[in-house]
Amino acid sequence: EVDGLEGGEEDFDSVGGVAKSPDGEHLYVAASASDKLAVLSRDDADQGRLTISQVLREGENGITDLTFVSGIVVSDDGAHVYVLNDEQAGALTIYQRDALTGALTFQEVLRQGENGIDVLDRANNLVFGDSGEFLYVIGELNPRFGVFSRDAATGSLTLEQSLDAAFPSQEGAISADGTRLYTAHFFDGFSVYDIDPVTGELTFDETIDSADDGDIALGIGAGVADAFYLPQSDDTLSVLTDTGGSPQIIQTFQDGDGGDDGLSIPQDLAISPDGALIYVTTVGAESVATYSR
After folding, report:
1. N or C: which end of the chain has fewer CB within 10 A?
2. pLDDT in tens, 14-23
3. Is the pLDDT of residue 7 over 50?
4. 34-68 exposure pattern, b = at least 16 Cβ within 10 A, e = fewer
5. What pLDDT, in 10s, does the model give residues 223-263?
6. Contact 55/66 with Cβ under 8 angstroms?
7. What pLDDT was estimated at residue 57?
8. Are 186 and 216 in contact (CB under 8 A)?
9. Would you state the pLDDT for residue 211?
10. In the 3-class helix/strand/coil scheme, how is the chain assigned residue by residue?
């Protein structure tokens, strides 16, 4: 629970997505179990304390598609927030964002099966390309990826490519140079796609399986030099390097080895803005493990 509107409190059951504004002043949290999207404001004067400044609820004031939210991203310019619903009749909702207050205003919604859109059926993740010009939709139960171009003036999206994925994937990350998309498989390993710098379109490059069959890639993080990071269900964190050829594992951390006791059932990871620290959330250890680069 966090401080809510008018001094109350707000529960967040089954969080389906979290995103931070580029200026770090606001956090967007979707609670799938209660069908709502909250805007949290950060108070620098009070050690970063978060307070809810707005709550959007399913069925109120024309708001829809807040059930089964699986992903949220904020555009690099901070002007729009994109919310992905992973139902079979999936939807991608666009909200205008107030740069000062962080408040959201509904703009439009794109739906599976409408206007030629065929990439939102049980899609699971959203990731912006390096330039912020293209938005990638990652499919999990329906292994299909979508490439949308973004109009910087309006925030509207246009589907540019619909691609059959090599494997169902639950998360994606863009390389530091913006030329590759890495996707963590729902079952085993990860895939690499090349990104066209002009059109943003994807071309499949290769799939790399885990060392042990059946290990689930639980997240993926990139954007630091030529390295990316892969936590897996065998309680490991692998560090890989990609210099344009086939990615290679250069280091692996194992829960219980060398005093490392923070990788029991890793769930996800994040990278600090300066790229100096890697944070891994875990279910088994109920902790956040921090690694320095």
Report:
1. N
2. 677 888 899 9
3. no
4. bbbbbbbbbeeeeeeebebebbbeeeeeebebbbb
5. 555 677 677 767 888 888 887 778 888 888 888 887 777 78
6. no
7. 92
8. yes
9. 53
10. CEECHHHCEECCCCEEEEEECCCCCEEEEEECCCCEEEEEEEEHHHCCEEEEEEEEECCCCCCCCCCCEEEEEECCCCCEEEEEECCCCCEEEEEEECCCCCCEEEEEEEECCCCCCCCCCCEEEEEECCCCCEEEEEECCCCEEEEEEECCCCCCEEEEEEEECCCCEEEEEECCCCCEEEEEECCCCEEEEEECCCCCCEEEEEEECCCCCCCCECCCEEEECCEEEEEECCCEEEEEECCCCCCEEEEEEECCCCCCCCCCCEEEEEECCCCCEEEEEECCCCEEEEEEC
Give all strands of the β-sheet with 287-292 in edge-to-edge order: 266-271, 277-282, 287-292
| Residue 175 token pair | 């390389």
The answer, yes or no, to whether residue 5 has pLDDT greater than 60, is no
Over range 147-166, report the average pLDDT. 95
Residue reference for tokens 């010009």: 133
Distance CA 187, CA 191 (A): 12
Model confidence pLDDT, tens digit, residues 92-108: 999 999 999 999 999 99
| pTM for the whole structure | 0.84
Contact 193, 181 (CB under 8 A): yes
Cβ-based neighbours of 47, under 8 Å, separated by 6 or more: none
Q: Compute the distance between CA of residue 202 and CA of residue 212 in angstroms, rounded to an integer.
A: 28
Strand order across the 49-57 sheet = 9-10, 2-3, 49-57, 36-43, 26-31, 15-20
What was the pLDDT predicted at 166? 77
